[in-house]
TrEMBL record:
It comes from Nicotiana attenuata. Residues 174-311 form the RNase H type-1 domain. Coiled coil: none annotated. This is Ribonuclease h protein. It comes from the Eukaryota. GO terms for molecular function: nucleic acid binding; RNA-DNA hybrid ribonuclease activity. Pfam families: RVT_3.
Length: 329
């Protein structure tokens, strides 16, 4: 069987490239002979689509072009790669196990059958691994995840899943404080939104409740508007010691840290913080929805209302919400 010399193959550990015109992919082809250069990239972001000739000057490697882009520890190896400078000849894949650098017909047929697109498998593996690493690092930030798939798999196999059980319940505020529970409801995002607020004392007693339609907006806008309405009512009615509670982690984050909210909510959040400065004391807690049912139900009730509605007495509330308040106590 004769030998075929081919110039465009899937990446293989035994394959490298003879550089002529420099049309080989800088990141994805095995022109270094140690695998794609993308495997050695240490900083963030996916490599772009550039060819090796982008880093040449007059047929020689240009160190000034390599330094800001290439992995620093790979530059000495790159500089050792010979350039057979000839822009009339495309770069050619060399099969290292044979002295001629050629494939057998069988090898060439397999390469053609499974696609002639250079390094498609390498790019796919790199993309999947990169996305998987982003997911793992965000979900399991305490684990030091390695950059390559075999080690990722090995560590994943050793992880042990622990399930913890946490009691979720509404807790009374401290003496002389009121607790303001708020919630925002959005029928769509963006869509019709509403707010629910309930204020209770340190013995769990009902003080006041509000349900307010808010027009059209986002869920985060509804959460923020509910907080503003609840805190403002407390200040206007002489309650200056407040424990604020909501089931929106983002809202609590915006109120307690320097984290920037979306620009569309920045003025509203600033109004809330300005209100809070009028309080004698104020604290903030994130709570799960199961401990925020009355406010949640009030926010849903708001969709059936046309104006902001105050409830001065617990008996004025719908029976479902009255039951939720009793269960909290």
């Amino acid at each position: 069987m004769g030998l075929w010399e081919i110039s465009n193959l899937e990446k293989n550990d035994d394959q490298q490239w003879r550089l002529h015109s420099g049309n080989t992919s800088f990141w994805w082809d095995n022109w270094l002979g140690v695998g794609p250069l993308a495997n050695f990239k240490q900083n963030g972001g996916r490599p772009g689509k550039v060819t090796v000739s982008n880093f040449w000057s007059e047929g020689q490697w240009d160190i000034q072009k390599l330094n800001p882009v290439a992995p620093i520890h790979m530059i000495p190896l790159i500089l050792q790669i010979q350039i057979h400078n000839n822009h009339h000849i495309q770069d050619k894949a060399i099969w290292n196990p044979t002295s001629s650098g050629a494939f057998t017909c069988g090898s060439a047929w397999c390469a053609a059958k499974y696609g002639g697109k250079t390094s498609a498998i390498t790019r796919t593996i790199y993309s999947i691994t990169s996305d998987l690493l982003l997911l793992l690092r965000s979900s399991y930030s305490k684990v030091k995840w390695p950059p390559n798939w075999p080690e990722i798999y090995h560590i994943s196999e050793q992880l042990i899943h622990y399930t913890s059980v946490q009691q979720v319940m509404w807790l009374r505020p401290t003496v002389d404080h009121v607790k303001v529970n708020t919630d925002g409801s959005a029928l769509d995002n963006p869509g019709k939104i509403g707010a629910g607020i309930i204020i209770r004392g340190h013995e769990g007693q009902f003080i006041h409740a509000i349900a307010s339609p808010l027009g059209i907006g986002t869920n985060n806008q509804a959460e923020s508007e509910a907080a503003y309405i609840g805190i403002r009512w407390c200040i206007e009615n002489g309650f200056s010691k407040i424990h604020f509670e909501a089931d929106s982690k983002l809202l609590i984050l915006w109120l307690t840290t320097s984290s920037e909210p979306p620009w569309s909510l920045s003025m509203l959040l600033q109004k809330i913080k300005t209100l809070c400065q009028q309080c004698e004391s104020i604290s903030y807690t994130h709570v799960f929805r199961e401990a925020n049912y009355p406010a949640d139900s009030l926010s849903k009730l708001s969709h059936d209302l046309t104006t902001l509605t105050h409830f001065n007495n617990q008996l004025e509330l719908p029976s479902q919400i009255r039951v939720q308040i009793i269960l909290d106590q």
